[in-house]
Amino acid sequence: MLEIESLLDLDETIAGNIFAGLKYPWEALRKIGDYILELGKTLSPDEYDRIGENIWIAKSAEVFPSAYIAGPAIIGKGASVRHCAFIRGNAIVGENAVVGNSTELKNVILFNGVQVPHYNYVGDSILGYKAHMGAGAITSNVKSDKSNVTVKVGGASIETGLKKFGAILGDHVEVGCNTVLNPGTVIGRNTNVYPVSMVRGVIAADSIYKKDGDVVPKVVDKSK
Q1: Could you give the count of Cα atoms lying within 13 Å of 94 in the half-sphere of its Cβ?
Q2: CA 9, 32, 82: angle at the middle one, nearest 5?
Q3: In the prediction, which pLDDT does 3 show?
Q4: What is the pLDDT of residue 52?
Q5: Residues in the chain where the model's pLDDT stays below 70
């Protein structure tokens, strides 16, 4: 479940090609800045305005006057970057995504339809199609001892070689309010995380994370 195709619909991002030849999605984190510089050159001036230093904003996007955007960055079609949002560079914000009040982004890919709408910090992370983080939910992207981040799955650890790596959220993941996603967290598609959780490691797809050690399969009512 850690491989790219198990977590992410690459048709739901302008950055699909960044994952070419990679096995794990976090391998793309090193490439985001350079990728934006190349991708930006290909964007149609009829659809995107180039603002300042390597910042491309879709003409249909809404950017509040109080928002701060540093390049390189791409803000996709129909996206909303709201009051006091702080985008620190190396950021791709997908189509119809929401970057909300006082939310901070740094070295991220937000797929189409992602919502980080209230007081979120998302750093060195990738959020899949229509993933949502509740108010105050954050990614913690550096370990306290400053060592490289590993992804822990079962009894094994996968070395990432990254000192900074927050989280990978699969498509349609819902993260509850005031949750902390510890470095190297990977959450599978369609999983819900309870509010005020502290999450680490790999959480299976189609699950409900209640607390550490209490993860249950999600029951879907197919009659609706």
Answers
A1: 25
A2: 80
A3: 96
A4: 86
A5: 220-224
Q: How far apart (Å, rounded) are the C-alpha atoms in residues 23 and 39?
A: 21
Question: Can you tell me which residue has the tokens 């209490």?
Answer: 214
213 phi/psi in degrees, rounded to 5 = 85, -5
The residue type at 168? I
pLDDT for the residue 98: 98
Encoding tokens for residue 91?
A: 């950021």
CA dist., res. 184 & res. 140, Å (int)? 9
pLDDT digits (tens, 9 = 90+) for 97-111: 999 999 999 999 999
Q: Which residue segments constitute the domains of the chain, with CATH numbers given? A: 4-215 (2.160.10.10)
Distances (CA, A) of 59 to 48, 80, 85, 106: 5, 11, 18, 22
Candidates 97, 126, 123, 124; CA nearest to 109 is 126
pLDDT at 195: 98
Distance CA 105, CA 82 (A): 13
Instruction: Supply 185's token pair.
Output: 């967290």
Can you tell me the distance from the alpha carbon of 145 to that of 136, in angstroms, rounded to the nearest whole number? Answer: 24
- Which phi-psi region, left, alpha or beta, contains residue 3 (left: φ > 0; alpha: ψ -120 to 50)? beta
Are 186 and 151 spatial neighbours (Cβ–Cβ below 8 Å)? yes
